Amino acid sequence: MVKRPANRPGLLGAAIVPHAPQFLTLPETEDKAQVGRVNAAMQAIGDKFRALEPDLMIVLSNAHCDDMVVHCVPPFAIHCGTRAEGAGGHAGAWPIDGAAGYALLRQLLDLGFDPAFTLDAKLGTAFTIPLDFCGYPRGQPFLPIFVNAYVPPQPTPERCFAFGQALAHAIEREGRRAVVLASGGLSHYPGTPQYPHPDIDTDRVIFERLAAGNLRYLLSLDSAALDRTGNVECRSLQILAGMIGDRKPDSALFEPSWHHIYAILGWTDLSPVKAENLHYPATAPERSELARAIFTIVDDAASRAAFTQNRDGYAARFELDSEERAALVALDRDTLRERFQINPMLLYQLEARVKS
Q1: Structural domain of residue 119, as residue ranges?
Q2: What was the pLDDT predicted at 192?
Q3: Would residue 272 count as lying in a domain?
Q4: pTM for this predicted structure
Q5: Do 46 and 136 contact (CB within 8 A), yes or no?
Q6: Is 238 found in the same domain as 118?
């Protein structure tokens, strides 16, 4: 069951999905059972998205040199029209949430990003297949956001990540409740002799890192690596990484085909990630006096002598509660470390100077 956030604004759900045109044309060379598995995985993500009750659907993807290739090639562009013409098996008008596009554009400008905007760009199936396979009706308004993947010079991984961070901030500032589909990849080489040979080894590593929640791994793939491994479309994934940060997906599917490596990953609970327990934790504000008492012993020879001669008297100099005082007087390192979260390195310094 999907946990619905209590009307909080911001990003509610996110997914990485493929958009291979073969999903629509289903040529004889296509594995129909595999397409069925991909469709089912995407439909499940769409069902979870709808349960979150968002008020904005965003699709991040790229043109395929069918637009934005000679007259103007922006790194990022937002569709601010009311409708866009689809392509291929999805020809015809698709409704666009242009008002949301303008609102996010203004927020991004205020946040230091200058994306282009368009009122009439056409939509390739890279934008519409994700909606279709996720179970959205043709009349569902959505917001297409373009990233330049195929026409050098493309935006760097760092810039894509930063754009994603700004976009997530813009959504929250605008008070919208959004879900986002990042459409692209994994490896494939359309228009080149390499097309029948996707880079499954690289893609398996990418998928495993993403499935483990390490989305920042995508930043290790620079422009040359993206091109070499057939992953130029991973720029939409890099944007998504900036939007949601490192977190494990709640669903993941890896499906290699002869021409694409399909990866589907879904995040339908974007509540704050609980911090892992650290070997060297931050000192809690309420333990600062205890930490100061310990550091004074470490740092000052006279205080160290005073502690050695009369531990209770030394502890009485500080505003410690009874349990803190008892742990300090007894030099109970386990309690100081585990319960009071005193830095182990500070306790190491204490142990080096004071013997039990």
Answers
A1: 10-267
A2: 87
A3: no
A4: 0.87
A5: yes
A6: yes
